[in-house]
Design brief:
about 325 residues; alpha/beta; Rossmann fold; 2 domains; six-stranded mixed sheet; about 35% helix; globular
C-alpha cells in the first residue's frame, strides 16, 4: 500500500488530456452585486476539461502522476463528483479505478445516475457500511478495505481527493487569480481546494470558503491540509458555514429556483451540490454588506451539472 502523500516518478503523460489552463476569468453583470458596488467575476474552472471538471483536475493531476500507472482507489458518497472525475481519468488514461462507496445498502439497488457514470467509465464499485467508512483513514480499517476490494497494490487517494499533493495542485488556482480579485470564494467539501487556493493568493487578497456540509470541522481540516502541504497555515482565509441547506446533496426548492434563475441571467449551467450553494451565499453576503464597495469578488465555478446517464444495475 502506498501513501498518497509520497509521490514517485510518474510514467503518465497528463498533457495528453489537454487541460485548458489557466481557466477563463469572466465578469458577470448582476445588479444584485452592482447595487452594492461589487464586481462579480466567475473563475471558470468548469471549463478546464470536459471530464475532469474544475478543482477535480487540479487535485487529481498530481495524484495521477504519483500513482505511476498503478490501480487507483478512492472514496466517496453516492453522488460524489470526485468519484466521477476519478473514473473518467481512469477511462482516459487506461488506469484501473476502484471507488469505495459509503453505504453498503446501496449495493442491492440500481445505480443512481452519478454512480452509473462511474461504472460506465470502468470504475469498479466497492460498497462498505457507514461505520467502516467513517474509520477508513485508520490503517487497519484501510488495509481491510483494500483486501476486500482486491486492491492491495492500489494507490490510495482520500475522500474528495484532498491530500498534500492535491493542495499543492490547487496552489495554481490562487496564483492564476493573484491580484485579479479582492475576495475569492469557493464551495468546500473537504477543504483541499480552499487550502491550496488561499496559499496561492497575494498578501492583499482573501479566500472565502462556503462549506456544503453541516458541522464546524472544516476549519481544522483545512488548516491540517495546509500544514501537511506547506508546513503551516497559509494565506488569509475564512469559512461561512451558514449555507449548507441542511447538508450535502440537500437541494431544497429555494436553492433549485435560485440556480435556475442564475442560469437564465448568465447562461451558466449551475451545478447544484456545490456551485449553487456558493452563488447563493455570495448573493446573500452582498445583501448583508459583507463586501465593501469597490470589491472585486471572484467565484470559483468548480463543476457542471451531472449529465443524465442511464440507470444501471450494480455490477460487483
Amino acid at each position: 500500500m502506498t501513501s498518497p502523500d509520497a509521490p514517485k516518478p510518474g510514467t503518465l503523460d497528463l498533457a495528453l488530456l489537454r487541460p485548458r489552463l489557466p481557466s477563463p476569468l469572466q465578469e458577470a453583470a448582476d445588479e444584485r452585486f452592482a447595487r452594492h458596488g461589487v464586481r462579480l467575476l466567475l473563475k471558470r474552472d468548469d471549463l478546464i476539461h470536459p471530464d475532469l471538471v474544475g478543482n477535480k483536475w487540479r487535485k487529481l493531476a498530481p495524484n495521477l502522476a504519483a500513482a505511476a500507472g498503478r490501480p487507483l482507489l478512492t472514496f466517496g458518497g453516492a453522488y460524489s463528483n470526485h468519484l466521477r472525475a476519478t473514473a473518467a481519468a481512469g477511462r482516459l488514461l487506461g488506469l484501473e479505478t476502484i471507488g469505495v462507496v459509503r453505504g453498503q445498502e446501496l449495493a442491492n439497488r440500481t445505480l443512481n445516475p452519478s454512480l452509473a457514470v462511474c461504472a460506465s467509465d470502468g470504475m469498479r464499485l466497492h460498497f462498505v457500511d457507514r461505520s467502516t467508512y467513517r474509520r477508513k483513514a485508520e490503517p487497519e480499517t484501510l488495509a481491510g478495505i483494500l483486501r476486500a476490494a482486491g486492491a492491495d497494490d492500489a494507490y490510495v487517494v482520500p475522500e474528495g481527493g484532498s491530500n498534500a499533493l492535491a493542495v499543492q495542485g490547487c496552489l495554481a488556482l490562487g496564483e492564476e487569480l493573484r491580484d485579479r480579485a479582492d475576495v475569492v470564494a469557493v464551495a468546500c467539501g473537504t477543504g483541499g481546494t480552499l487550502a491550496g487556493l488561499a496559499a496561492g493568493l497575494g498578501p492583499r487578497q482573501r479566500a472565502l470558503g462556503v462549506p456544503v456540509l453541516k458541522g464546524e470541522f472544516l476549519a481544522a481540516d483545512t488548516e491540517a491540509l495546509q500544514t501537511r502541504a506547506f508546513g503551516g497555515r497559509r494565506g488569509n482565509w475564512s469559512l461561512d458555514t451558514r449555507f449548507h441547506f441542511g447538508g450535502y446533496a440537500r437541494i431544497p426548492s429555494e436553492l433549485e429556483e435560485f440556480a435556475l434563475d442564475f442560469e437564465s441571467r448568465h447562461g451558466l449551467p449551475v451545478e447544484h451540490l456545490y456551485v449553487a450553494k456558493l452563488l447563493y451565499a455570495l448573493v446573500a453576503l452582498a445583501e448583508e454588506g459583507a463586501f465593501p464597495r469597490g470589491t472585486a469578488l471572484a467565484a470559483v465555478i468548480t463543476g457542471r451539472p451531472l449529465p443524465q446517464a442511464p440507470v444501471q444495475a450494480v455490477s460487483r
